[in-house]
Structure prediction request, 253 residues.
Amino acid sequence: KGEPESLNDEQGSDENDGEHLVEDDDDEPALPKDLEHVLYVYTRPSEEELIQRAREFYRVASARRTIRFFSPDPVPKEVIQEIVKSAGTAPSGAHTEPWTFVAVSDPRTKTAIREIVEKEEEINYKKRMGKKWTTDLQPLRTDWIKEYLTIAPYLILVFKQMYSIGPEGKRKIHYYNEMSVSIACGILLTAIQSTGLVTLTSTPLNCGPALRKLLNRPASEKLTLLLPVGYPARDATVPNLRRKSLSEILVEI
Ligand code: IYR
Prediction:
């Protein structure tokens, strides 16, 4: 219980996640009853290949850093589209695919997003976060000024769909939407990294509803993540952090 209640706004209640048993008098499954099952096509790599590929993936993944200083250089729209396609391959509860990705390159919308975020973040830093939190953040040198929101060529906002409305106006339950969208976000970050671009994993506090309305997303959706995406600024710096070693994170039994 680290955070004051007021910061927990949109994340707070998971009661709509559909993870609890819900009585439904409808015995039609959401997916087709006669859904076809087909053979899985798979080529098995050799053990050497497994090791080599795992090492190569680690090399790419471990080079990822959270970047707060972006170049204004444009990124092709097609790259963003491919990255989002990758994120959309995430597994989801009952294949409900409970995510919407909003990719913003329009400068005016980026400015409007920055205004919303900076207004709330100033309050967060000055009042809502509390002394311990701001003290813990000091080494990262963050503050409420978020230039990257107007400088980065793209902002990707990830919304989780708590539920959706089917063809006959029926509410479709999105099982495990929180977990499904979190996994999609992980794939999104990795796709950005693997492509050769950089991003910042940001979760603007208390901004969810205002950003949702700005972007015309329905009330069934909640903002999960806001990612500026682009190239790093030439003089971008990162804190010199070290990651836990394998022995600190892996328990082998
Ligand atoms: N969301 C704020 C504060 C912040 C909080 C944590 I925990 C971080 O690791 C980094 C920043 C901001 O973006 O400034």
